[in-house]
């Protein structure tokens, strides 16, 4: 059985690589589209992946200060998704 | 085996679960065929992926001795807002006709988000 510390650092490395690959795939979907719905969806996924990267950074450094960053990014991500969708639907964000 | 070691193993396993579901969601977002189908894949990222990663963060805080339940805030916020943004994005898909078969409007009504086509019957009391 692998010692716990080695297993944790291995899992952290795997998670960083996997979330980075996911971010890249979402970025490719953001570029190739084809519709504006897909682009909004890709941006939403990228926000969630960014939260995941920040959480992983907090785990790897052993600090708790990244929590507020992740919370604010989660709130702004939802608001920006709704704003993009409103803009596509209505041509205006606040009518 | 002490509680610290068990907690460290738990953190690593939560990390692997979260990373796996994040990758599954991103591959689905990249590979699936049409817009309405692609809308399903990032649900995995939002629910299982970020949930397990935040659980890992919370557990690692408790292992280090300064744990708290603050991460539940992010989890609850993401879980509450995910259906709302998915609803908005599917409305965008219907509106831009990106979905293969947009649903028929209810009788004598039009969708509020769809543009009016030529054959559409406009209700009498609709303003302008």
TrEMBL record, chain A:
Family, per entry: Belongs to the CPA3 antiporters (TC 2.A.63) subunit F family.
Matching Pfam families: MrpF_PhaF
Membrane topology type: Multi-pass membrane protein
GO molecular function terms attached to this record: sodium:proton antiporter activity
Subcellular location: Cell membrane
Family annotation (PANTHER family): NA(+)/H(+) ANTIPORTER SUBUNIT F1 (PTHR34702), NA(+)_H(+) ANTIPORTER SUBUNIT F (PTHR34702:SF1)
Calcium recorded as keyword: no
Record keywords: Antiport, Cell membrane, Ion transport, Membrane, Transmembrane, Transmembrane helix, Transport
Name the UniProt record assigns to this protein: Na(+)/H(+) antiporter subunit F
GO cellular component, one term: plasma membrane
Organism of provenance: Octadecabacter temperatus
From TrEMBL, chain B:
Claim: Nucleotide-binding is one of the keywords in the record: no
Keyword terms of this UniProt record: Membrane, Transmembrane, Transmembrane helix
InterPro entries registered for this protein in UniProt: PhaG_MnhG_YufB
Segments crossing the lipid bilayer: 6-33, 45-63, 69-89
MF GO annotations: sodium:proton antiporter activity
Highest taxon, organism lineage: Bacteria
Pfam families reported in the protein's UniProt record: PhaG_MnhG_YufB (PF03334)
Residue ranges, annotated region (Disordered): 99-128
Basic and acidic residues bias: start-end ranges: 115-128
Coiled coil: none
PANTHER family in alphabetical order: ANTIPORTER SUBUNIT MNHG2-RELATED (PTHR34703:SF1)
Protein name: Na(+)/H(+) antiporter subunit G
């Amino acid at each position: 059985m692998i010692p716990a510390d080695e297993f944790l650092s291995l899992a952290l490395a795997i998670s960083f690589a996997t979330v980075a690959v996911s971010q890249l795939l979402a970025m490719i979907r953001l570029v190739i589209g084809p519709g504006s719905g897909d682009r909004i969806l890709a941006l939403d996924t990228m926000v969630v992946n960014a939260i995941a990267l920040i959480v992983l950074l907090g785990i790897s450094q052993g600090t708790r200060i990244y929590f507020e960053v992740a919370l604010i990014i989660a709130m702004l991500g939802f608001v920006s998704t709704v704003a993009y969708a409103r803009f596509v639907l209505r041509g205006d964000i606040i009518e | 085996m002490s509680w610290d070691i068990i907690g460290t193993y738990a953190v690593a396993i939560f990390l692997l679960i979260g990373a796996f579901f994040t990758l599954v969601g991103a591959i689905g977002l990249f590979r699936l065929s049409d817009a309405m189908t692609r809308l399903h894949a990032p649900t995995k990222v939002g629910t299982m992926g970020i949930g397990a990663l935040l659980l890992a963060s919370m557990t690692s805080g408790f292992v280090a001795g300064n744990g708290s339940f603050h991460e539940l805030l992010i989890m609850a916020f993401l879980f509450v807002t995910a259906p709302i943004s998915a609803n908005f994005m599917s409305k965008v898909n219907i509106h831009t006709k990106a979905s293969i078969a947009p649903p028929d409007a209810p009788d004598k009504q039009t969708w509020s988000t769809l543009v009016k086509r030529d054959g559409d019957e406009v209700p009498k009391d609709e303003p302008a």
